[in-house]
Amino acid sequence: MKVEGTPQRPIRLHHDGWSVDIIDQTRLPHRLEIATMRTLDHAAHAIEAMQVRGAPLIGATAAYGMALAMRADSSDLAMGIAADRLLATRPTAVNLRWAVEEMLGALFTVRPNERVEAAYRRAAEICEEDVATCQAIGAHGLTLIEQAAAGKQGAAVNILTHCNAGWLACVDWGTATAPIYMAHDAGIPVHVWVDETRPRNQGASLTAWELGQHGVPHTLISDNSGGHLMQRGFVDMCIVGTDRTTATGDVANKIGTYLKALAAHDTGVPFYVALPSTTIDWTLDDGFAIPIEQRAGEELTQLTGRTKWGENVTVSIAPKGTPVRNDAFDVTPARLVTGLITERGIAEASREGLKALFPERSR
Ligand code: MRU
Fold first, then answer.
1. Which residues neighbour 135 within 8 Å (Cβ) at sequence distance 6 or greater?
2. Any idea where the domains of the chain sit in the sequence?
3. Residues 173-193: pLDDT tens digits?
4. pTM passes above 0.70
5. Whose CA is nearest to atom 15 of ligand 1?
6. Residue 243: active-site member
7. CATH number for the segment(s) 2-128
8. What is the percent of the chain with per-residue pLDDT over 90, rounded to a whole number?
């Protein structure tokens, strides 16, 4: 997607042909800053520090992290160490494990002296596959927006989203945002309610930024507003992303998603989850088995922002020493999900629904 008219991706190969450029998302929305990863440690740090975040992008970064590791040492031992280092960075998004396993699969089958080339090739494929997948998700999700628009006599379709499941979280298009961008580009009036997404504010700092860059009408709302807006009829549908979805359709996503799903259920607002199949954990049947990342208390006790003088400051907002619990994700049970928008179509959030679209997984 474009930033100030120029196509951008959150990850791409540097012009030297081997190091990897990322948009440093900790600097947004105030600065578009590119960081360059040259080592396995840089890639692991980028994921841990959330310079890159969002399930598909974490996977893509890990894939390039494996390639960078192979440049330094392409032995079997180094491959295993690199995989372990990357897998330890963040626990919830299953795309990380998927991408690392894809890379190991591509590397084990070739000789050590061929591994660097094989790693870069597979990492680039993973990125391009993600773009194609998000485009397909967009095309399927677009049909839902078209249906909603048909009943609105030209008024905008109001879509609520949580966190950032946009192009910044993927390689391009985004998952939840792909249908929105496609609808907007097709001339369908859309308006997005952007949850601020405390504590890290991915909605305020990332989703609002990328929608604004593309010219999609949107309004930032506090995390507590969604239920109220749904009750008043101001939301036509919710579309969110996910970090891991079980084979039975339970959805782990950014903390607060479950509350939106409950409100949507109570008010009869359709609640869709957009996801590439790489986010489905076919080994799990129960959402409560999904590991939930626990993050630093400072994310809640402090706020960071930019003053009107252009200075970045962090301020404390809670009494010193306040105990904090900071779960980064929650699980929305399948029964609250209207549909899963995948690259192969829209599935019912159930084992049967997913198997119908991914029959090869039923074996
Ligand atoms: O902690 P984050 O910012 O990595 O969490 C991101 C989300 O929860 C997204 O909704 C999810 O990864 C889907 S991204 C297409």
1. 173, 178
2. 2-128, 137-362
3. 999 999 999 999 999 999 999
4. yes
5. 165
6. yes
7. 1.20.120.420
8. 99
